[in-house]
């Protein structure tokens, strides 16, 4: 029987790849968009989906979008890890999630998959990967993005207590083709253009966007209500990740390690120079503080229960680099 599915955040990196995969089936796919949304990432499937207009931050705009819906993929969210205060993080990531959960309960939606983040899981002590049972400890860094993703998961838990069938997925650091807004792809672009002369001392869990989208769908089909599933792959140091990007893109390797204490001094010096010496915009103290930690995760639960496939992180970097290069997006 044909299902009616609503996707929020469908114009984003993960959301758009999810929509492309869902649209290949016979189900009825609705994608929640704002009137001002850029639909570039949905080219090729616009004739197979229905656009419904609304905004997760506007509770009243969601009722008609949710009418008759069986399943909701909630991937809408704001990813901002800069130094400046951004009140939209609370409005979109927390209040927006609460709105989707409330409307889903009211509409009798059968199941919701909430797309969270590894920042809602925590930070490693040492190099041992965290799993889904880890106690959240990202507050020791004070990253507002992480706080809002954690708060959104608390809202999911409350909605489940109220009777909503909901599963949480926690994607890691996502690379791959189709990242038109240069989310993780900004690292590829800036390494390629020699704008990152140093690397932080932490590490990260890398996963390809196609695997993420596949696994989100598997979570809808096979995930257990109230459970969370980490969607990750290789755990690599930023040195290793930078080396991979350099090897694939053909640029010289980055050889200068930069401890966080030294980064604070360097950032102060660069801020006195308005030209910033052509250093990547990724170099802000909040992001560098996070990158100085080990964000390593154990994804075996998703492999075991959802059938998530895994592949070397080099494949994802190559896929993203080739996609950018073919479209002349790296200059």
What does this 3D model show about the protein?
With 331 residues, the protein is of the alpha/beta class. It has a domain at 4-181 and 205-233 and 297-302: NAD(P)-binding Rossmann-like Domain (Rossmann fold, 3-Layer(aba) Sandwich). 38% of the residues lie in helices and 16% in strands. The protein has eleven helices and 13 strands. The chain has helices at 13-22, 63-66, 88-107, 144-161, 185-192, 209-222, 238-249, 260-271, 285-291, 300-306, 313-326, and strands at 4-8, 28-33, 50-53, 71-74, 111-115, 166-171, 173-175, 198-199, 203-208, 228-231, 234-237, 256-257, 294-295. The strands form three sheets. A seven-stranded parallel sheet has the order 3-2-1-4-5-6-10, sandwiched between helices. Strands 7, 9, 11 and 13 form a four-stranded mixed sheet that branches. The radius of gyration is 20 Å and the shape is globular. 47% of the residues are buried.
Key descriptive features of the protein:
331 residues; alpha/beta; Rossmann fold; seven-stranded parallel beta sheet; four-stranded mixed beta sheet
Q: Terminal Cα separation, in Å?
A: 47 Å
CATH topology of the domain at 4-181 and 205-233 and 297-302: Rossmann fold
The residue ranges in which pLDDT falls below 50 over 5 or more consecutive positions are none
User: In which order are the strands of the major sheet placed?
Assistant: 3-2-1-4-5-6-10
Number of helices, counting only DSSP H or I runs of 4 residues or more: 11
Rg computed from alpha carbons, rounded to a whole number of angstroms: 20 Å
The assigned CATH architecture of the domain at 4-181 and 205-233 and 297-302 is 3-Layer(aba) Sandwich
Average pLDDT confidence is 94
Number of strands: 13
Name of the CATH superfamily of the domain at 4-181 and 205-233 and 297-302: NAD(P)-binding Rossmann-like Domain
Query: What proportion strand?
Result: 15-25%
SSE order: EHEEHEHEHEEHEEHEEHEHHEHH
Which class of secondary structure composition applies to the elements? alpha/beta
What does the overall shape look like?
globular
| Major β-sheet annotation | 7 strands, parallel
């Amino acid at each position: 029987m044909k299902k009616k599915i609503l996707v929020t955040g469908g114009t984003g990196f993960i959301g758009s790849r999810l929509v492309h995969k869902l649209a290949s089936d016979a189900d009825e796919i609705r994608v929640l968009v704002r009137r001002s949304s850029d639909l570039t990432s949905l080219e090729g499937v616009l004739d197979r989906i229905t656009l419904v207009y609304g905004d997760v931050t506007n509770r009243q705009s969601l009722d008609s979008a949710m009418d008759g819906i069986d399943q909701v993929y909630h991937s809408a969210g704001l990813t901002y890890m800069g130094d400046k205060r951004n009140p939209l993080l609370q409005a979109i990531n927390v209040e927006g999630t609460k709105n989707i959960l409330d409307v889903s309960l009211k509409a009798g939606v059968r199941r919701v998959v909430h797309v969270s983040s590894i920042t809602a899981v925590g930070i490693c002590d040492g190099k041992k990967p965290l799993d889904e049972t880890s106690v959240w400890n990202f507050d020791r860094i004070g990253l507002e993005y992480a706080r809002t993703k954690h708060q959104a998961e608390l809202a999911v838990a409350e909605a489940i207590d109220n009777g909503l069938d909901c599963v949480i997925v926690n994607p890691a650091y996502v690379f791959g083709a189709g990242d038109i807004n240069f989310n993780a792809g900004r690292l590829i672009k800036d390494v390629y253009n020699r704008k990152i002369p140093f690397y932080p001392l932490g590490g990260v869990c890398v996963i390809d966007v196609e695997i993420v989208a596949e696994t989100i769908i598997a979570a809808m089909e096979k995930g257990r209500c109230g459970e969370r599933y980490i969607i990750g792959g290789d755990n690599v140091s930023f040195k290793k990740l930078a080396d991979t990007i350099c090897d694939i893109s053909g640029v010289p390797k980055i050889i200068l390690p930069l401890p966080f204490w030294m980064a604070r001094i360097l950032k102060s010096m660069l801020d006195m120079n308005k030209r910033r010496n052509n250093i990547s915009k990724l170099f802000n103290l909040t992001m560098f503080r996070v990158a100085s930690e080990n964000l390593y995760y154990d994804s075996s639960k998703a492999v075991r229960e959802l059938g998530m496939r895994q592949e070397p992180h080099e494949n994802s970097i190559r896929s993203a680099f080739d996609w950018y290069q073919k479209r002349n997006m790296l200059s």
